[in-house]
Amino acid sequence: MKxxxxxxxxxxxxxxxxxxxxxxxxxxxxxxxxxxxxxLAGGTRYARxxxxxxxxxxxxxxxxxxxxxxxxxxxxxxSDLMKALPSPPGTDLLLATCGDGYAGIYTSDFISxxxxxxxxxxxxxxxxxxxxxxxxxxxxPYAITVSSDLVPEALGFMDLEHKKPWAVTDIEVGTYTAxxxxxxxxxxxxxxxxxxAGRRIWVNSCASCHGGPEATFGGTKAQRPFQVLVAYxxxxxxxxxxxxxxxxxxxxxxxxxxxxxxxxxxxxxLIEFITAGQRQP
Length: 281
Known about the structure:
Strands 1, 2, 3, 4, 5, 6, 7, 8, 9 and 10 form a ten-stranded mixed beta sheet that branches. The chain is α+β, with helices and mostly antiparallel strands. A hairpin with a 6-residue loop joins strand 4 and strand 5 (70-77). It is built from eight helices and ten strands. It has two domains: 9-178, Sulfite Oxidase, Chain A, domain 2 (Alpha-Beta Complex), CATH 3.90.420.10; 180-278, Orthogonal Bundle (Cytochrome Bc1 Complex, Chain D, domain 2), CATH 1.10.760.
């Protein structure tokens, strides 16, 4: 789920400060509708591409985000999208799910600090004309990305690529407390400093593909129960560390992305978090 890092950007903001309400429909009308669910009255509903495009948008000119050279993206910032949905007070989380089960996780703090956005058009062309010539994958119906040229501090965010999902079909709004309760309760309620650091790595990276303990939210792309990860982390630490850093060196057909930048300390923290359920009472 990688998009290339932007090399240069110029920004022309067309959006007004206030987000307008987004009309939601009970039935899907096209493959370019965005399913919207979570803590909304009425259950799962659908936002049409034209209705999202009619919201206040911004033009973002970037280089090498999707294609070689400069490209102009028409976008809606996730902050405006959340304001436009009929969410109850306290909503502080947006989850974006892709057709293959991959998930992007956006807390209100991340949205405020790093300004992720939903891509509606690439060089003036909507998803019905994607992929643009020269792009080897189709990001339709929607992509979400973060530009380090818009927010330079984003370069310091560990695993920023996990915040750049494409082929997004669904979004869910809710509260962080509810969706991630399982990793803050039971044996995960009183983690060491190392375990807490591992929990942050889990949420910002691992949970994009893996469900957590106690039915905690996670993507379904990996299709591997949490207890399988526990078994490797607890009883075959060397295999687990090597697999996280370079999966294909152990399993040629592995779909997981390599994380060679994880230090020994990062791996120790992640293992401490994953194996917390193995602690004796």
